[in-house]
Automatic annotation (TrEMBL):
Location(s) in or outside the cell: Cell membrane
GO CC aspect terms: plasma membrane
Organism, scientific name: Natronococcus occultus SP4
Protein known as: ABC-type nitrate/sulfonate/bicarbonate transport system, permease component
BP term (GO), one: transmembrane transport
Transmembrane segments: 12-34, 69-93, 114-141, 189-213, 225-245
Membrane topology: Multi-pass membrane protein
Amino acid sequence: MSERTLRLAGGDVAYPAAALCVGVALWWGLAVLAEIPSFLLPTPDAVLARLAGNPELYLVNALHTLEKVVYGGAIGIAAGIVLAVFVASVPWFRRAVYPYLVTVRVLPKLAIAPLLLIYLGTGTATAIVFVALITFFPLVLNTAAGLDRTPSTHHDLLRSVRAGPIARLVYVDVPYAIPDVFAGLKQSVTLAVVGAVVAEWVVADSGLGFLILMGSENVRPDVMLAALAVLLVVGLALYGLVVLVQRRVHARLGLEDVA
């Protein structure tokens, strides 16, 4: 691992950690100096006490949320990559479906949840489908755009040696598309966490989102903030995993380190 990569990795940890410390200090100062009642804004130590008082509650619900994120995200990402290859490889298919992919992406995904509730009912399976839909569109559009970045001279060279479409895809198109694929993955991973929480509000009866909803209904901001803290850790861990894999792939392909 190069010195620049180590420096980038250190910055990825140090800067967010510093921002978190500043944010917690401001939160603490606001709650104490403004004398805000604990039922409106509990202090950070009160939230930590809530986490420490019943860690199993948050761990179990975090695992339920992570299950929806992993399964739904995996389905959405796999489907997005497959469709992106078809969109980039088949011109008539691209002209037929690409405008709809762009249009559907800008629609509010929250509007889909009630429809899934009608058609699929409540439960984990419905939440997984919702997460899959949320993660699908960023990846298919970014991957398709990346697969189009290959210079036409490279394709001409491959045709001159009679290379097939699979060889062109694997050895030329995919390396050029890697930055866009990971850009889509970063969006999909973060949206998967958001989608899981929204699904737990509407169609599920477990998970951190459901816990936040219950805390809201019972006016328990300490429960809500504790669940949000755990959710933040889950989201950062998943995003960091994607960045780590991206750096490894870039190093393997001789691309620039991720800034």
